[in-house]
Structures
1.
Amino acid sequence: MTTSTASEPETAPAEKNFLPGPVLLLGAPGVGKGTQAKALMAAYGIPQISTGDILRWNISNGTPLGKAAKTLVDQGTLVSDELVNQMVADRLKQPDTRRGFILDGFPRTLNQANWLDAQLTSDAGTLPVVAISIVVEYEQLLHRITGRRICGTDHIYNIYSNPPAVPGICDVDGSALIQRPDDSEAVFTERMKTFEAQTAPVIEHYRKQGRFEIVDGDRPVEEVTAGIVSALKRLRNDSNQ
């Protein structure tokens, strides 16, 4: 669970009085959520909160919640919403979340979104969640995922947008490039179906409350970041009126 408070001095002076609050970044596999989350962390000195990281931390540290979760994981059972919610609640008590945080992988369901809203409402000093969806056309995402190739030392290429000089060979070390099993079209299609089924109710939930915006993710990274920052400021201004 990485904290980026060390980046706070780099925040522009004009941003010091702006509280980003809780930000939910939504987007299909391959849209660049991770890259954009890092940009927001650096800009505002806020942490990224990943339910996967929280789960692993609790299990590795043997907390009561971690022990309960490990029992379920060892049995091949999904960790319940209630257990995940408790872990998130504990994480939100940490002081690095004071100015805001970026949510990664949570809330995935409408039940989790309702729980999170109630949890934040119970703390009078906490802003409500705003949701920003990074959108890229399906075919472009398909190329981003299925075109990805890596070598043994993790140099990354894309046969469509960033191909190696010699097909199938790493420019740096001359080793063979491979396609990871998870980067196949079949796996991508299933991940998209799951994403759309889970996310649609969450998007509608925040859209109805006026706390949702879409940002075009098919642009240079810096332009996408600027779009997200602009959307965040509009949503915060609207929610404070």
Note: Residues 1-14 have pLDDT under 50 and may be disordered.
2.
Amino acid sequence: MSLSIPLFLKPVFKERIWGGSALKDQFGYSILSNKTGECWAISAHPNGPSIIENGPYKGKTLSELWGNQPELFGHYDSEKFPLLTKILDANSDLSVQVHPDDVYAGKYENGELGKTECWYIIDCKENAELVYGHHAKSKEEFAELIKEGKWNKLLQKVSIKPGDFFYVPSGTIHALCEGTLVLETQQSSDTTYRVYDYDRTDETGKKRELHLQKAMDVSTVPHEDADTQFEITKSNASVITTFVKENYFTVYKWEINGRTDFSQELPFQLVSVIKGEGILTINNEMYPINKGTHFILPSNVKQFSIDGDVTAIVSHP
């Protein structure tokens, strides 16, 4: 019989050409350098598996638990842990990119999952924007504008502010832009096809690789804006916003102000605290949580409460 306890996770950090110091400045993380772009907060991907920080599984990776303790995840039917939660610090513009779906990635990327993702804007500079979609009406026009480098004509830019949410299905041309801090919920995949990288060079003077043919293969043309209808549920001490419910994940924002009781009938939930602090209580055991805490609620946690002033992004497959 496995214990009914949360699984707290130690994040993995990644340096990126576009990274900065916001993960240290805003979350207090001990980061690699002032070019740290990604916090892989809840991950069982081989390129950056999280480590359990508490209880009998302390020191094990999430991927080990997924393989060896399937009861913790409600015997969820998937060979791979399906989701990956990241916090991204876009200190400068990310490359314009696109991700494949499961079929294409499975065929051309050694059985990797595709990558549908979504973003919650934690913070951004004034007048920030991002690339979401494009203006080409046909594959021919799409290829021609890329070939001619007419990026301003091709790319669709969207103004953003803190609290915005974007659903980014595979096939969507996209890019986070300078001065943006986001929580990303995605399929557990590390496959990205770069379309344009601003002709940047790394410290050795080399440009990063582009993947134009694969990008043309997988891009949705013409672009389709994702239709997301938010659902909001209010109680005395909480506001729960459901951002998206679709094939790969459901994503919520929990805004808790005071004690809120929850019941869980799901295989498991991923929880990332992005603001505030409070106490998570399970079976009369109390666990402090605060901004930057990430944990999984396994399937055997049927009842729990959170007391405090806490905002969290929560997901499940």
Note: The domain at 231-316 is CATH 2.60.120.10 (Jelly Rolls).
3.
Amino acid sequence: MLLNGRNAVIYGGGGSIGGAAARAFAREGARVFLAGRHAEPLQEVAAEIRAAGGLAETAVLDALNQEAVNEHADDVAAAAGSLDISLNVIQHGDVQGTPMAAMYLEDYLRPVSTAVQATFITAQAAARHMMEQKSGVILAFGGSGTEDRGQYLGGLVTALEAIESMRRQLAVELGPFGIRVVTLRSGGVPESLPAAMEGREGTAGSIAAATLLNRAATLEDVGNAAVFAASDMAASITGTAINISAGAMLD
């Protein structure tokens, strides 16, 4: 198993993306620690992992609460013996479908502020332990896309660009400690769209239509890519993004 003996923290572990990564990590032997603001979805994912023979624990916390995140990271490292993988896939609270010229300032800035704060807090919490053990992988999700895909996405594109900038800086600073920092770029995962979302089918179709393979990334694709990025098979990959957009992103 590719992640046997590794300990992984997934912020937003009760969501579709976080759950997919957690199940894939556990399948490959990792002990997963699911963190999020709501207990029920975390427990559902943990129950699935345990039913499949994996190891999963949950914790209710807000990734914007630095004290809580630090305490949780300390608890994980103390209980498990190491903190090897950190993945942040929390929701950013972005507003889409509204032109920037008609958008409220707070709606535009919310995802930017959330992304920067949560990325900083969770990466720093993990880095403290990874620097001591001289190893570890910090994963981000989303990544920047081509300019023409930013229409009516509000502050989301700016938020993703901010994450990429932070990822590059973290990779430079943490590389000497053996820590890798990688982004997974999907171009959109239709399965992760809320079931009650207005225009869901149309949005899913547009995501697939923008690809070269005429299909978008699936949750299984995301999980498999996350496992690869976190494993020793990707030992020489850092400071960059792994593109799983099925050709939607060419830059």
Note: The CA atoms of residues 90 and 188 lie 15 Å apart.
4.
Amino acid sequence: MSTDPIGVVKRELLVRQLDSWTPAALHRSRRVTFAQAYAGADGGVADAALRVFAEFADLLRGRRTTALTIGPADDHDLSARHAAAQSELPDGLTAHLVPGGVERLPVGLKAAGAAGAPLLVYLDGTGGPGPAPEILAAVAGGRPAELLLVLDPPVWSGADHRRLLTEAGLPLVTEVELVAETPARSEVLVFGTAAGKRLDAFKNALWAVDEYAGVRYRDPADPEGHLLDISLAPHPGPLRRELLTRLATVGAASVTELRQFTAERTVYRPADTNRVLLALLAAGLVRREPEAGRLAGDVTITTAPTP
């Protein structure tokens, strides 16, 4: 198993996402699919993901659950680890290893009968190009569908990929850059879905992972590019700047609108919005209407006039 710090964070984040997705998907449907595809070495993520299903053996009974893993044909280590993990899988889960590149994902999803039922896809495209539109369209065929996508920063273009994900049917998109200090490098992790509750679940998982030495988050939307420690109470500085910039652009916004902005356009959780807005109100940097009462979703926030 890889000791690469970014790989460790990706592995724990996927495991946490599966922990919340699996019971919800199985309660929703008798047919669910999890798929993972790797452009290069998986770093031990693939078999760790498969082992999550052992925790839900009781829910898997009587249901059709498929786990699809796609990896390079010459990755013999992945083949060996997949075989070992498969021997430990509970009844009700069928696992397949498909040799090849990420471009085989649409064919694999079709063979698994993934369309029209809950689907979670983890696609690690580091070392390769961004996913083609047909791959995103195949993922969006799940009902509901969600995608965890990892890319190299030079490949990621926030505006372009947001448009592609939205056009494919995954309109709720957020991203975070995972930054390692030694050796200095980074990867961009993108989450796309059409379900607001699943976006919230991803954000909660993002900040709940254990803090690993040498890895921090960077909000791609933060013009100052500050690095953030992984914490249940992340430093509010970037969100403070981004909310003020948003208000300067739109003039006025409800708390609900600002929470949605936070969820989709920043690395922060919707709940962090209220925490930052209360600080901005206390500092006199924004105003609210009505002026008193709970900071509910229908409260309107505006930038305070410059004295």
Note: The longest helix spans residues 5-28.
